[in-house]
Amino acid sequence: MTIAIALTKGRLEKASIAMLKKEGYGVEALKEKGRTLVFEDTQKDIRYFLVKPNDCITYVQHGVADIGIVGKDTLMEGSDDYYELLDLNIGKCRFILGGLKGHNPFDKLGHITIGTKYPNVAKAYFMEKGREIECIKIDGSVELAPLLGLCDGIVDIMETGDTLRENGLVVFDTLCELSARVIVNKASLKLKQTAVCAVLEDLQRGSEAC
Ligand code: PRP
């Protein structure tokens, strides 16, 4: 029974492929992928594909992928019609509230504008603190937004902190810690239980070694 695994392109790509390789999965082709999008490990009967973070959830929810490896940041922002079953302990980073030194958005009276790729996360965080905000959705290089005066602050992921530092921005608060998670299609867990659980056990072992 073939198991389809959706891997997330970009930030998590290298670490998740490395973990699969360490656990004996045939992911060699994924490292020299060129423009190819789907890869087969015929020995283990697994099909892999590399997709953008939000698409990883979409493929799993629709059952095209049985298993997905994706960041908790993406899961917190998106819909949740899947099982989140494992923390892989890779791709560790955090959600932060950042901005220009001396300009903490919470100190502002009145209207707060936040630039972010994660408007749902940002709104929920400020709501919990009793403040309503306006979110401006930004798709990349979020640090640019407060620098150019587009917003009062940003809610974004921070890994090393280099991007913030190099642009003269500071952290005002940490919302939560983040890492790569394993999600599973609800029907796949019932219908392909043995094969899915075998992969989960391997990944669990991999995550414990991290
Ligand atoms: C993320 C995030 C920050 C940066 C933080 O962007 O939005 O810009 O990484 O990482 P650091 O703390 O290690 O500097 P990403 O690299 O995913 O690219 P993007 O700006 O195109 O979204």
From TrEMBL:
<keyword id="KW-0067">ATP-binding</keyword>
<dbReference type="Pfam" id="PF01634">
    <property type="entry name" value="HisG"/>
</dbReference>
<feature type="domain" description="ATP phosphoribosyltransferase catalytic">
    <location>
        <begin position="52"/>
        <end position="204"/>
    </location>
</feature>
<keyword id="KW-0368">Histidine biosynthesis</keyword>
<dbReference type="GO" id="GO:0000105">
    <property type="term" value="P:L-histidine biosynthetic process"/>
</dbReference>
<comment type="function">
    <text>Catalyzes the condensation of ATP and 5-phosphoribose 1-diphosphate to form N'-(5'-phosphoribosyl)-ATP (PR-ATP). Has a crucial role in the pathway because the rate of histidine biosynthesis seems to be controlled primarily by regulation of HisG enzymatic activity.</text>
</comment>
<dbReference type="InterPro" id="IPR001348">
    <property type="entry name" value="ATP_PRibTrfase_HisG"/>
</dbReference>
<keyword id="KW-0547">Nucleotide-binding</keyword>
<dbReference type="InterPro" id="IPR024893">
    <property type="entry name" value="ATP_PRibTrfase_HisG_short"/>
</dbReference>
<dbReference type="GO" id="GO:0005524">
    <property type="term" value="F:ATP binding"/>
</dbReference>
<keyword id="KW-0028">Amino-acid biosynthesis</keyword>
<keyword id="KW-0963">Cytoplasm</keyword>
<keyword id="KW-0328">Glycosyltransferase</keyword>
<dbReference type="InterPro" id="IPR013820">
    <property type="entry name" value="ATP_PRibTrfase_cat"/>
</dbReference>
<comment type="similarity">
    <text>Belongs to the ATP phosphoribosyltransferase family. Short subfamily.</text>
</comment>
<dbReference type="GO" id="GO:0003879">
    <property type="term" value="F:ATP phosphoribosyltransferase activity"/>
</dbReference>
<keyword id="KW-0808">Transferase</keyword>
<comment type="subunit">
    <text>Heteromultimer composed of HisG and HisZ subunits.</text>
</comment>
<comment type="pathway">
    <text>Amino-acid biosynthesis; L-histidine biosynthesis; L-histidine from 5-phospho-alpha-D-ribose 1-diphosphate: step 1/9.</text>
</comment>
<dbReference type="GO" id="GO:0005737">
    <property type="term" value="C:cytoplasm"/>
</dbReference>
<protein>
    <recommendedName>
        <fullName>ATP phosphoribosyltransferase</fullName>
        <ecNumber>2.4.2.17</ecNumber>
    </recommendedName>
</protein>
